[in-house]
């Protein structure tokens, strides 16, 4: 036994020495005395007046720069590490290596502080984690309740000190990248970007394929004799150095305590003192500029984008000429470019953005979504853009516009709503990379503070007709796409810009339709701020109630905000009785939004907001702004709504917008199947209004609102039943329903499943807290099992949904697989979940309880969140307190009984509804349905060798079965030219295809499910939940 013990110690010693050699630990680790030699770089970072957070930027002895945020209001702690290395640093022969490193890094560490891995620990305590790879950076992020922060921080730091890089994790990490790649293939915006990269200079890093896939990370390296695990270790050891990292941590802990934690856990990150790679080779050459490419889109929308190369804008962070330009070109006032193009019937929207590409280069993009008429006249649109730019150059920089932007910037920064630090730290860690060690304006990065006419003129001069690449995305023009992009296989056509367009753009006549905007009248002059109160009121009160109007009010006694949120809910009984009825109300809302577009734009610029959108049983008018101008804005909006006369163009534009939204959406279909309350369209004008004001409304606010609404609705018939919200269809115990649809879009390869378990009434706090615990457990393991291991699809969402009446638990998957197959895998997953529920330890159960108590103890961290809670229409303001009381007495036995009743597939009490949306191109049997293991051994038995990795790659790149069979036959013919391949391949595929069909038919026969053939009949056969009336009489909600 002692020999065994000594031998074990010897092995541990060898492992430690191996670790030191592998990571050059002896050169990089800090002595204890060095840990005191930290530098405080900044402690006086400018911050908004309403923010209570304290900030400090320090430099550790290993040159790691850290932003510490002590935030007394936050209930979650978080950390974000940004490494200044991205896919631009990929080796040319292994595209996607940086992305692969991001995935495998999170899969284990040699410095394991406990047996619980990072992911399990974060999920168990209701936290989240994520990571992303950019061109020149990689971000890693997590948050967690503060009481669990230190151990999470320890585990997080170990990824940057001693990552495990286990060989057993390689395949999982590669499959995760492959799943992401499959998702990218379905994204029009990413496909367009990849074409742009392909057209760029091969000498520029912008030309690189940064996503990676199974082919680039497994097959290609193997073919050239490289081990992907050794390659990623080399990449990590070369570039992951503390002097290239920026860390942000946020917690309710003091700055000194946070500094202690950072010193303790992050001082050992190796500092290799390397220089950050600088990339300067320009993407666009003279051959690229002056070209246009047409992308074959799978969407009905038409997108046009002009991409200009400009000097990097972080060089002008205080003058920000691109913000001056954006402010003018996106302006939606009369005499603007936007309004001109809109009234011509050419565009739906116009936006601009800048995107950093290289150390010294940005792209400035002007993006327009066009109408079919606009597509036919796209040259006219481009000429108009350059005419507007010419007007700006001729007028020259305007100092009054700078002062308006300065005033707006100061106002928006000074009174920016409090956003919990954990939500912004990932952004701040990226800003630290951009700031290049000047951290004084981290929170105000990019705000205009200085006037520089020269910088504005230089930017405008760079936006000339010889300095842009044009892209147009359409599904029907030009129809002769003759090129295919290599990685994402997008069809496109490349050609020179039309000569007529080039000539007209360089010889521009003046366009008298264009003028500079007028000053903004909605910018506040006074700031109404109520002092903080020691006697806080946590519930709203009903200040006024009448026959057709109720006014709820909640004074701001916590946030000291000069803003008020005003919600007006217009109830239109039975507003969505049919899809057509729902479309009509959406058309009406779109028309109203178009009519107030100029007001809406000016208010948004002035830090306010006006929105009209569907809400529950009607629509909502949402006005948020500075109290000083709120009711001026309110009256202007109401007048515009009352006085509008829709033009045929505006009507058709709204109609098209609604038509574009009508497709088999999982959310819409599930809401339709579950929700009652759809009635004939002739009742659409019967309305009831509800209003809510949160913030600092004037004393006579209810009178102002009531008088204005009386003028509109005094002649409308009021029915007391209009007070009731929609009810929900109630499934009976043992129900197992499937509703199937097929997508019309033949370009979309994805199918979808919405797997919903109906739990019970929403006003039952015990059900709600139990479903929260189950959700913590499911979210901890579902991604690893369903997405990474089983490769069912990259998009996976697990969540519970709570209406006013019912609680449901939903599992949503987007995949190229058959939805019925996905449903069977979800059932297997639920069976496995039972074993996990059975084996929960007392410690784990306590952690779950503490996490949910923390959730229900949540304090609203800004006035907007508080207002949204009140406007939900759930008037049980003490529900969280009731839920916490239930949690304190909950047992593991309660959890097990709950799971076996509502989740376990064999439960006679379980109530399930699933929606299957099949892709229009999904075959009865696709490549992914075949057993690749059986195929591999079948060929091997016939003395035909195909590496399994090659089979996997061919299946992934050829989802259509006939194409997969053809590609395998071509591969084998080349490898075995003297063998009759065709018969062997045909027999293999015929056998496996029939085998899958037999398995599926057997599963269908044994699966006791009822298909919903007619949703109307289904809904009429369902019982309805009880009406959710207010918990108390409305009189009880009035202020004492």
Automatic annotation (TrEMBL):
- Recite the UniProt keywords alphabetically: Hydrolase, Metal-binding, Metalloprotease, Protease, Signal, Zinc
Q: InterPro entries, per this entry?
A: Metalloenz_LuxS/M16, Pept_M16_N, Peptidase_M16, Peptidase_M16_C, Peptidase_M16_M, PqqF-like_C_4
Q: Please report the stretch or stretches of sequence annotated as the Coenzyme PQQ synthesis protein F-like C-terminal lobe domain.
A: 777-862
Q: Is Metal-binding tagged as a keyword?
A: yes
Residue ranges of domain Peptidase M16 C-terminal in the record: 229-405
| Gene Ontology terms: cellular component | cytosol; mitochondrion
Q: Name the needed cofactors.
A: Zn(2+)
What range(s) does the Peptidase M16 N-terminal domain occupy? 66-189
Keyword tRNA processing appears in the UniProt entry:
no
Peptidase M16 middle/third domain: from which residue to which, for each copy?
413-663
- Which SUPFAM superfamilies does this one have? LuxS/MPP-like metallohydrolase
A single MF term (Gene Ontology) = metalloendopeptidase activity
What family name appears in the similarity comment?
Answer: Belongs to the peptidase M16 family.
Protein name, entry field: Peptidase M16 N-terminal domain-containing protein
């Amino acid at each position: 036994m002692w020999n065994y013990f000594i031998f074990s110690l010897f092995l541990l010693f060898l492992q430690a020495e191996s670790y030191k050699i592998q990571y050059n630990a002896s050169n990089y680790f800090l002595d204890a005395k060095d840990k005191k030699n930290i530098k405080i770089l900044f402690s006086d970072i400018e911050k908004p007046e309403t923010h209570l957070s304290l900030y400090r930027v320090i430099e550790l002895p290993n040159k790691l720069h850290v932003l510490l945020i002590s935030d007394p209001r936050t209930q979650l702690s978080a950390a974000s590490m940004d490494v200044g290395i991205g896919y631009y640093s990929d080796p040319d022969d292994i595209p996607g290596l940086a992305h692969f490193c991001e995935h495998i890094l999170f899969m284990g560490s040699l410095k394991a502080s406990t047996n619980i891995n990072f992911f399990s620990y974060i999920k168990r305590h209701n936290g989240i984690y994520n990571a992303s790879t950019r061109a020149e950076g990689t971000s890693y992020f997590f948050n967690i309740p503060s009481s669990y922060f230190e151990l999470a921080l320890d585990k997080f730091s170990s990824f940057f000190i001693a990552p495990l890089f286990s060989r057993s994790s390689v395949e999982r990490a590669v499959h995760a990248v492959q799943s992401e790649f499959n998702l990218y293939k379905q994204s029009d915006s990413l496909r367009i970007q990849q074409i742009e990269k392909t057209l760029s200079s091969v000498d520029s890093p912008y030309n690189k394929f940064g996503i990676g896939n199974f082919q680039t990370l497994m097959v290609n390296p193997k073919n050239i004799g490289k081990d992907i695990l050794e390659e990623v270790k080399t990449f990590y050891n070369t570039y992951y150095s503390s002097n290239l990292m920026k860390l942000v941590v946020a917690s309710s802990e003091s700055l000194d305590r946070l500094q202690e934690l950072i010193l303790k856990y992050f001082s050992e990150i190796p500092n290799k003192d390397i220089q950050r790679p600088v990339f300067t080779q320009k993407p666009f050459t003279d051959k690229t500029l002056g070209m246009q490419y047409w992308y074959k889109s799978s969407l009905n929308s038409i997108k046009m984008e002009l991409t200009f190369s400009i000097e990097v804008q972080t060089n002008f962070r205080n003058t920000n000429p691109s913000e001056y330009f954006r402010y003018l070109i996106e302006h939606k006032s009369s005499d603007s470019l936007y309004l001109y193009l809109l009234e011509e019937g050419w565009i739906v929207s116009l936006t601009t953005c800048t995107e950093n590409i290289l150390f010294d280069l940005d792209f400035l993009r002007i993006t327009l979504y066009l109408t079919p008429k606009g597509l036919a006249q796209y040259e006219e649109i481009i000429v108009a853009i350059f005419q507007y730019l010419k007007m700006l150059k001729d007028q020259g920089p305007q100092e009054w516009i700078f002062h308006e932007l300065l005033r707006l910037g100061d106002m928006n920064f000074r009174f920016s709503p409090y956003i919990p630090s954990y939500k912004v730290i990932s952004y701040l860690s990226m800003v630290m990379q951009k700031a290049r060690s000047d951290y004084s304006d981290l929170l105000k990065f990019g705000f205009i503070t200085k006037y520089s006419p020269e910088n504005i003129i230089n930017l405008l001069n760079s936006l000339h007709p010889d300095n842009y690449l044009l892209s147009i995305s359409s599904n029907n023009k030009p129809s002769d796409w003759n090129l295919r992009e290599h990685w994402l296989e997008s069809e496109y056509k490349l050609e020179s810009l039309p000569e007529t367009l080039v000539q007209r753009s360089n010889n521009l006549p003046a366009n008298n339709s264009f003028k500079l905007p007028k000053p903004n009248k909605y910018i506040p002059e006074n700031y109404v701020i109520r002092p903080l109160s020691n006697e806080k009121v946590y519930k709203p009160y009903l200040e006024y109630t009448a026959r057709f109007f109720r006014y709820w009010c909640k004074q701001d006694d916590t946030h000291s905000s000069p803003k008020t949120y005003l919600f007006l809910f217009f109830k239109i009984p039975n507003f969505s009785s049919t899809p057509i009825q729902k479309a009509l109300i959406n058309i009406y809302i779109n028309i109203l939004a178009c009519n107030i577009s100029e007001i809406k734009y000016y208010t948004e610029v002035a830090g306010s907001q006006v929105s009209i959108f569907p809400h529950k049983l009607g629509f909502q008018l949402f006005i948020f702004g500075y109290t000083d101008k709120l009711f001026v804005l309110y009256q202007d909006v109401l007048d515009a709504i009352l006085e509008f006369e829709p033009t045929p163009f505006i009507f058709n534009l709204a109609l098209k917008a609604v038509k574009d939204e009508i497709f088999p959406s999982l959310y819409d279909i599930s809401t339709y199947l579950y929700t009652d309350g759809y009635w004939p369209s002739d009742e659409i004008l019967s309305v009831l209004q509800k209003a809510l004001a949160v913030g600092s409304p004037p004393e006579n606010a209810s009178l102002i609102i009531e008088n204005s609404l009386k003028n509109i609705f005094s002649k409308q018939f009021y029915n007391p039943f209009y007070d009731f919200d929609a009810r929900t269809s109630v499934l009976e115990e043992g129900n197992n329903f499937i509703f199937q649809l097929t997508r019309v879009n033949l370009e979309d390869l994805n199918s979808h499943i919405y797997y919903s378990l109906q739990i019970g009434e929403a006003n039952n706090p015990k059900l709600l807290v139990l479903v929260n615990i189950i959700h913590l457990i499911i979210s901890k393991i579902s991604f690893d099992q369903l997405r990474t291991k089983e490769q069912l699809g990259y998009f996976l969402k697990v969540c519970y949904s709570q209406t006013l009446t019912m609680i449901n638990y939903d599992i949503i998957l987007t995949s190229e697989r058959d939805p019925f197959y996905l449903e069977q895998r979800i059932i297997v997953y639920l069976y496995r979940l039972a074993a996990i529920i059975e084996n929960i330890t007392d410690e784990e159960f306590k952690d779950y309880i503490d996490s949910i108590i923390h959730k229900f103890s949540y304090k609203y961290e800004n006035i907007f969140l508080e207002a949204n809670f009140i406007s939900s229409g759930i008037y049980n303001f003490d529900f969280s307190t009731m839920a916490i009381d239930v949690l304190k007495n909950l047992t593991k036995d309660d959890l097990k009984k709950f799971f076996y009743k509502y989740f376990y597939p064999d439960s006679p009490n379980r109530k399930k509804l699933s929606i299957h949306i099949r892709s229009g191109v999904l075959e009865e049997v696709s490549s992914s349905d075949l057993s690749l293991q059986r195929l591999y051994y079948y060929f091997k038995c016939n003395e035909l060798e195909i590496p399994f990795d090659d089979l996997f790659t061919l299946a992934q790149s050829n989802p259509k079965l006939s194409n997969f069979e053809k590609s395998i036959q071509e591969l084998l013919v080349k490898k075995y030219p003297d063998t009759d391949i065709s018969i062997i391949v045909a027999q293999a595929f015929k056998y496996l295809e029939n085998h899958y069909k037999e398995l599926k038919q057997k599963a269908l026969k044994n699966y006791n499910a009822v298909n919903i053939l007619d949703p109307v009949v289904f809904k009429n056969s369902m019982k309805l939940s009880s009406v959710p009336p207010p918990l108390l009489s409305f009189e009880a909600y009035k202020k004492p």
